[in-house]
Design a protein that fits this description.
The chain has helices spanning 21-32, 65-74, 103-113, 155-164, and strands at 2-3, 36-40, 57-61, 79-81, 94-97, 118-122, 167-172, 176-181. The protein is α/β, with parallel strands linked by helices. It has an eight-stranded mixed beta sheet, sandwiched between helices. Helix 3 runs parallel beside helix 4 (155-164). The protein is globular and about 40 Å long. It starts with a strand and ends with a strand. The mean pLDDT is 90.
């Protein structure tokens, strides 16, 4: 995991799911007093864990109904919803966008409606085949490749979006960038 120099204190927190992102998010949330977690692309919580499961106030977006039922059983206090369509999210929150396809578009919607304090946005795997910095056309997004790869927007493109919306990169792993909103 690469951590920006000004956030070097996070190095000791690089633990947990997926490449240490969970520990970094937990440390950032604790430092900022954040208790609201929103996960877009939450899965079912069993096959893969809910990244923000450590937060007491959860909103979990999952498009597949069978996964929603599993989430409701595992997180009975969480608000479990279907597709995220662009509604307002609390600014004093941590948002994870992990849908294995249109993550960039969702991050664009989220930051159009508000400015969550912390965001983690998935990007194309830095170790995946044919990584480029150019914008990927929509018709390629989500296309399956070998070894479970899916085409997503590359890190440089996602970072550009997040920085244009007032976010600073805190850390980056093979598949996720973690950003903090820098209030002016």
């Amino acid at each position: 995991m690469y951590i920006e120099e000004t956030y070097g204190w996070l190095a000791e927190h690089c633990k947990g799911w997926q490449f240490g992102e969970q520990g970094v998010l937990k440390a950032l949330c604790e430092r900022k007093g954040i208790t609201n977690g929103i996960e877009i692309g939450a899965g079912d919580g069993t096959t893969l864990p809910v990244t923000l499961g450590f937060l007491p106030n959860l909103t979990l977006y999952e498009i597949q109904e069978n996964r929603q039922e599993k989430l409701r059983k595992l997180y009975p206090k969480a608000a479990v919803k279907g597709e995220y369509k662009g509604e307002d999210l609390p600014d004093h929150s941590c948002v994870v966008v992990d849908v294995d396809s249109f993550d960039y578009d969702i991050a664009e919607k989220v930051t159009s409606y508000g400015k969550p304090a912390i965001m983690m946005v998935e990007h194309y795997d830095l170790e995946g085949p044919g990584v480029q910095d150019a914008m990927v056309p929509d018709w390629l997004i989500g296309l399956s490749l070998a070894n479970h790869f899916r085409i997503q927007q590359p890190f440089a493109v996602v970072r550009g979006l997040m920085e244009s919306r007032g976010y600073q990169l805190v850390a980056v792993t093979r598949v996720n960038g973690i950003y903090v909103y820098e209030e002016e």
